[in-house]
Amino acid sequence: MRNAQISNARSAGPDALRTREILTARARALARPYRRPPAADQAIEVVDFRLAQESFGIEQTFVREVQPLRELTPLPCTPPFIRGIINVRGEILPVLDMKIFFELPGAGIADLHMVIIVHAGDVELGILADVVTGTRSVPLNTLQPCPPTLAGARMKYLKGVTNEGMVILDVARILSDADITVNEEVPS
């Protein structure tokens, strides 16, 4: 069938053959799958906070709310990076201290600390922050891989670093990690 079409186009003259080739090339170009443009215009909104004089960010889609730290109750039989639990409108949530988790300098909790309550699926917890500075937009094409010296073994919990040095946390990975989930009971 294809040979018959080419033969018919040739018999009609050189202009008909050229027209047929152009139309075939256009049809192939239009039939290609759609490719998204580069991520130059794509960005994520992050909550910007400070830990031990370092700048960190959490994608806003994972943040439920931010509130001042009140009445942190220590919890026995948990890893040191779980600082305790808080009561948020009747809901008991664990609080993760990222300074201990990432082995950053500085210990202790001040009255001015904030808790960033994050969620992914059915899991919710609070992340302790020294100061929450606000929200900002981070273009995805500016994220760079984390340097190996930044967090050592905990590097798998980081999405990347911005040009300004803000470390973006991978909250989905943090909340889904079995090493963070504590499913132990105290023997009675």
Kindly summarize this structure in a few lines.
The chain is an alpha+beta fold and 188 residues long. Helices cover 23% and strands 35% of the residues.
Number of strands: 10
What is the level-2 CATH architecture name of the largest domain?
Answer: Beta Barrel
- Beta-strand percentage range: 25-35%
Mean pLDDT: 80
Uncertain ranges: none
Q: Radius of gyration in whole Å, from Cα?
A: 27 Å
End-to-end C-alpha gap? 83 Å
Helix proportion: 10-25%
Structural class: alpha+beta
Number of helices: 5
For the biggest sheet, the summary is: 5 strands, mixed
- CATH H-level name of the largest domain... which superfamily? CheA-289, Domain 4
Task: Please report the first level of CATH classification, the CATH class of the largest domain.
Answer: Mainly Beta
List keywords for this structure.
188 residues; alpha+beta; OB fold (Dihydrolipoamide Acetyltransferase, E2P); 2 domains; five-stranded mixed beta sheet; 23% helix; 35% strand; elongated
